[in-house]
Task: structure prediction
Amino acid sequence: MYQALRPMLVVGRGALALLSTPFGGRGFFWKEWVKGGGEWKRVEGKATECERMSAEVLEEERRGQTADWFAQEYLCSFVGLENEAFRVEWLAAAREAGRGFEALRFEFEGRTLGGG
Result:
């Protein structure tokens, strides 16, 4: 939908607003938030800063979810989710170190896998 709408906005110089919670470090929302240019106005609204959400209700929500899911849905965090084979942070660290996949080391069923 996002890619289809962009050309439609060109003729009339229409405005586009993206509203979402993060869903990991992937997809068009993440790309525009992190790598998009100055034409985007970024507004972040964490649940902990919203007067309509009580601390008690947020704590109840925190207890009912994984830490990553809560951070994603309530704290505007682009975190990896527990079902990802490789966390985005691991891949980014390997890339920043100038190394590829072989630089990753991880534990699986008590065995260390990957390079190092």
Remarks:
- The two ends are 41 Å apart (CA to CA).
- The mean pLDDT is 79.
- Strands lie at 105-108, 111-114.
